[in-house]
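Colleagues,

Please find the record for the two-part complex below.
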Amino acid sequence: MDLLNAIQFESWAEFVDMGGYAFNVWAVYGLFVVFIAVNIIVPLQRRKTLLRDLRRRQNIDAQVALNRQSASVAGAVDNAVNDSVAETAKVVGTGQNAQQGETS
Amino acid sequence: MWVWFAKLGSPKWFYELSTKWLPWLVVATVVVIGTATVWALLFLPPDYQQGYTSRILVVHVAVAGTSLAFFPLMAVAGTITLVWKMKLADMVAKNAAALGAWFSFITLATGSIWGSVSWGTWWEWSDSRLVSMLFQFFLLLGVVSLRSALEESDKAAKACALLSIVGCINVVVIKYSVEWWNTLHQPASPVSIESGSANGPEFWIATALMILGVYLFLSLSLILSTRNEILMRERRSLWVQELMSTEK
């Protein structure tokens, strides 16, 4: 095949050696791969943590709104909300873990 | 025209459109960079002077050339931010600065590794191309730290936009440095259709393909980080709140 004949190397070892410049050639291509991988993986990881944090926040906000409604009936808004924020953070945290456990 | 322009600036519109196009962009990036890399490593004939180290230049030239796009890109985005206060433009500019610093660093590193063979030195302070590229690296780091140093995001956006516009001067210096002061870094070899010449078709087609691939990668990385920025800044808006409950 023409394509195979166009390959510049006779053997695997010759390919690795790069005419004696193995270090330089492979260092550059290695750097290139790392450069691409980092700049794709980092934004993907960031997205993951961002979505998790935003969802947690959303759940807490919803809980706070609920608690505020019931607390205002009793007439002790501030204390109850403050207490429940801390409480919800715990509950939401464990609640999410349990949910993740179910789905995965 | 203005309706289209306003739409383009809407983070929601950009987010939804990019969701549709992302898979295709990923495929295109992988195919083009993959082809260019295999071509360069396996099929490129050894240069009569550089031997197999000319393979380094396919990556170096592609990344270096693309790194020059960052300041013009940030300047255009900055101008849009300053004149029309478009939120999306500033989000792109913010993420471009850090990515541009990466591009400049990789340009310097790969150039150094090539120079250590061909010039017999890793670095030369008297070469204008090398020093102006190093300056671009520091300028981009400067834009990144300026952004994080200013508390008020509106002020930070304006300051970064101004610095980006001024920074374009350095791009011109980098571009013409090899012609204005000729020390170590050679000017670009003229593109030739003659096989086996300094910049023959085997070399420049592989390089052109790599340049296209690197631009695709730039867009992909920038779109991914801009999408994060959109979610972060628009987190209180109704559409992001709804998105949270549907998207995984």
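DSSP finds four helices and no strands in chain A.

Comments are welcome before we finalize the supplementary table.
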